[in-house]
Specification:
With about 190 residues, the chain is an alpha/beta fold. It has a domain of about 100 residues: Beta Polymerase, domain 2 (2-Layer Sandwich), CATH 3.30.460.80. The protein is built from 4 helices and 9 strands. The termini are far apart.
Amino acid sequence: MALSNEIIKDKLTEKFGDQLINWEEPYGMLTFTAPKELNLKILQFLFDDNELRFRFLTDLAAIHYPHRKGEELAVVYHLHNLVDNVRIRFKVFTDINKPDVFSATALYAAANWMERETYDFYGVNFIGHPNLIRVQNVEEMEYFPQRKEYPLEDQSRIDKDDEMFGRGGPFVPGNERSAYGTISDEEKQTLN
């Protein structure tokens, strides 16, 4: 019998009960949420079970939800059963003030780099990681750039011309534009 989302959900529910919530199937991919304390137990179960065989970590990333107080950061695991070609996703949430999640490096070697990158950009502290350091940003950086805590643009820039970005306002008579910018009064005289 082919491995289906229903079988996966039944086996996980049998093992972990109602601790797993928010079951969905966007685009056919089984997705659920788990308590962060269970992430390693769930990963181990999915890896070891002879029918499930989720032995490939496709991706591990974080998402910042600033409006979710107490669970602002989500760590998302994408797993793949290569034998049956089935993928699943599960999320664990953590508080941004204490973003501790257990490391999956003992189970998946690929988690090593992915967890470093997630730490580097979101500040998730992976407990038990063998070498949790910044990999793309400088060590001296005191913030995590992918968190939604900073404005998208530097408001103090003086080299930015809003007209170049289509934010110059509506077209009104007297504010005619050419391919090279706004037409000056002198240029208007030469056109007439």
